[in-house]
């Protein structure tokens, strides 16, 4: 997959430019049916179709969960059933209403993506026939709601500040003159729903966001291109979280989004550019070298099967003297996957490899210097996850070091 990057302010209006193309687009016969390129394209369409199906299946999935809850109550003795059946029925009715509202948002996300992104998404949209989705996909669907809370709601402000504020402050320190920031090219890896990328854009920088997840790409496209005012939409992120609840009403708590109007940063008012790039980080920028002034990775480094590949790749795509900021834990995503050869390195070894690969460490902060960070947390849940994150800022040496 490759990205289409905007080169002029007129070409973008806080829009996501995503082109789901075959990675082998330098082949003359890339679209020949039956060839490797055709197989690759079909795989991409099928992958997108599974995502779209899961988003459409959310309501049916939720009803099946409610049915299991109801069956468990009905299986109780008559005496115990009387204790629960009346309040449960009312709660289930409210849950169904909240689920229906969430489904409306998911429907808009998919429809917006099919109409605006075209290509693979449009093809997947056209062939989707609703069917049960796996638990794996439905977990990701529920995660979309929580990612919206994190990146685009007032409730997520504190969580965002704990993860994004440091890197934004450092960018402003490096480039204190706002009028010249448009010439600074920043890559945000693992951009998710693109809030950090948008925040940097609003500070005047030219920003490219890279994201692999189709779930995230569809949702960010909807927010950036459809939302026209603050708190325009309402979701119920925790409505299917039956465990670790203090009360039933906590499940029904609404969250409104977005907390800002993404369209405020419009192309006719700025010189800086903005784009989103779909695809695997290593493949999407395989042809780039000495391109970016800054790379920012937040909660991203642990997505690598081999962190050394990421380190070398970031070094290659940075301009000489360019900076890389990283913030996050090391919850390696491939650790428990037998089919992936995964390398899990501790923080100190990551730092050692960074220096070996031609970077100079400018800042290094650990748990003693940073506040706890959370990720898509529910403040009203009995279960709370938090991270002691590591942070570093490093610079690419003017002369490359052999790696």
UniProtKB/TrEMBL annotation:
Pfam families the record matches: CARME (PF07942)
Family: Belongs to the carnosine N-methyltransferase family.
SMART domains, alphabetized: N2227 (SM01296)
EC code: 2.1.1.22
Superkingdom in the source lineage: Eukaryota
Record-linked PANTHER family: CARNOSINE N-METHYLTRANSFERASE
Molecular-function GO term, any one: carnosine N-methyltransferase activity
GO biological process: carnosine metabolic process; methylation
GO CC field: cytosol; nucleus
UniProt keyword annotations, A-Z: Methyltransferase, S-adenosyl-L-methionine, Transferase
Protein name (record): carnosine N-methyltransferase
